[in-house]
Amino acid sequence: MAGDFAVTQCRDVREFAALEADWRRLHRGCRTATPFQSHPWLYSWWVSYGTAGRLRLVLVRRAGRLVAAAPLMLAFRPLPVLVHLGGGITDFCDVLLDDSCPDEAAAALVTGLAAAARTAVIDLREVRPGSAVERVLGAWPGPRRRLADSPCLELPAVPFPALLERLPASGAQRARAKLRKLDALGVEGRAVGEDKVPAAVATLLRLHRLQWQGRGVTPEHLRSRFAEHLIRSARTMVRHGEAMMTEFRLDGRVVAADLTLMSDRLAGGYLYGAHPELRARKVDVTAMLLRHCAEAAGAGGRDVLSLLRGNEPYKHHWRPDTVRNQRFLLARRGLEPLLALHAAGAAACDRVAGLADGSGQCEGSRQSRTGTQISRPSQLSIQSPRSSGPQSVG
């Protein structure tokens, strides 16, 4: 293209692996990025879940420096469609744009996306309001649609005592009493180093399975490919300060474990496991994790504590605000009928699944980590101003 921008497309997994350093630099230079756009997360997901020949990374370089990236893959549903990497186990999807030239990078990325799409519709799910994709939407020359996606609940990223002030006096008093009981029991959280991540992930998944035994655990969380993805991605992310693995111990035993993913502006508690013993002892695990996440948010100077996708009643105990994710459909000029057909199918699917009231979604549907059919696996996330398995790839 004109100017000093070069647009390319990566379809080779070895080239994807070699992009790690450049991708990390771009990820840290994009203010809207979440941990789910990091190279370790996306590359590891592709190794576990990708289909050979379907990778479609659209890359933009300026004077040799990576300034934009769209991590996509080709799927058939049954017509061809380009979708984000990450599938149903990824909470937020977005493109990456360098903050030094976001508009120019978006314009160049549009050129690459149009070339990659050809006759396919581009279907971008779970896009947070204010994400980089919105710049791409503004520059897109062809037909486009904006649809509602999953609801997210958010709190301000303030110290935990300030979160308690949002509650009625009686509710705050009960929460403080539960936390005093937790502290009296002697439950302590300790960060896990990179070398201990594989064992810690295995412990987390074991506790997660015990936690939901007999109550409908998400099947994907029991599969080896999911464990392999978490170990592979978390080790690298812990090494670079992009994740924090925490074990909670009681009398020297690990009774809970949490994996928190982080970017410069977001820290999200992705998955946890808690021994049933804690429930039997009336330990408020949600409050324990929320306090843990609030401390991480304060340490990183973030602005928003997000409870992520899903509208579960227990989240409303903390009086959060509701923010609706978005879904963008893009097509090249002349393909309006195909885009309209895809949009109609998406709307019909959402009506069947009950997305309008936050209870679920159809194509690429997720389950909560409690097993309840909602729009995402339930957990905590912190962001500043964050299935029954992955989406099918054919």
What does this structure look like?
- The chain has about 400 residues and is of the alpha+beta class.
- The chain has two domains: about 5-150 and about 325-355, Gcn5-related N-acetyltransferase (GNAT) (Aminopeptidase), CATH 3.40.630; about 155-315, 3-Layer(aba) Sandwich (Aminopeptidase), CATH 3.40.630.
- The chain is built from 13 helices and 14 strands.
- It has helices at about 15-20, 20-30, 40-50, 100-115, 135-140, 160-165, 170-185, 195-210, 225-240, 275-280, 285-300, 315, 335-355; strands spanning about 5-10, 55-60, 65-75, 80-85, 95, 120-125, 145-155, 190, 245-250, 255-260, 265-275, 305-310, 320-330, 380-385.
- Helix 3 runs antiparallel to helix 9 and helix 4 packs across helix 5 (about 135-140).
In DSSP terms (H or I, runs of 4 or more residues), the helix count works out at: 13
Write the CATH fold name of the largest domain.
Aminopeptidase
Termini separation comes to 32 Å
Number of strands: 14
Number of domains: 2
Classification by helices and strands = alpha+beta
Report mean pLDDT, rounded to a whole number: 86
| Rg result | 21 Å
Helical residues, percent? 25-40%
Q: Any idea what the CATH superfamily of the largest domain is called?
A: Gcn5-related N-acetyltransferase (GNAT)
> How much of the residues is beta strand, in percent?
25-35%
CATH architecture of the largest domain: 3-Layer(aba) Sandwich
Q: Characterize the largest beta sheet: strand count, sense, and whether it forms a barrel.
A: 14 strands, mixed
What is the string of helix and strand elements? EHHHEEEEHEHEHHEHHEEEHHEHEHE
Q: Which descriptor suits the 3D outline?
A: globular
Model regions low in confidence, pLDDT < 50 over at least 5 residues:
355-394
CATH class (first level) name of the largest domain: Alpha Beta
